[in-house]
Recover the amino acids of this structure.
């Protein structure tokens, strides 16, 4: 094999490994995103999973996090 053939072979191997790595990363990212819920959708997810588990609105009109900040 000449130097040029070795360089081309190494370049092809690098491209194949790079594409496999990127493909694996894309697959893992998609899998993680499909299994998680955005913070602003969590109440909706709970309502779908367990209807009646949470009230539609805050019946006391209080923010529990606000109370902790004021202490």
């Amino acid at each position: 094999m000449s130097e040029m053939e070795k360089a081309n072979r190494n370049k092809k191997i690098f491209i194949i490994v790079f594409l496999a790595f990127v493909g694996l990363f894309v697959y893992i990212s998609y899998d993680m995103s499909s299994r998680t819920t955005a913070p602003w959708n969590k109440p909706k997810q709970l309502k779908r999973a367990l209807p009646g588990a949470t009230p539609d609105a805050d019946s006391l009109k209080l923010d529990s996090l606000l109370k902790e900040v004021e202490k």
In short: The two ends are 76 Å apart (CA to CA).
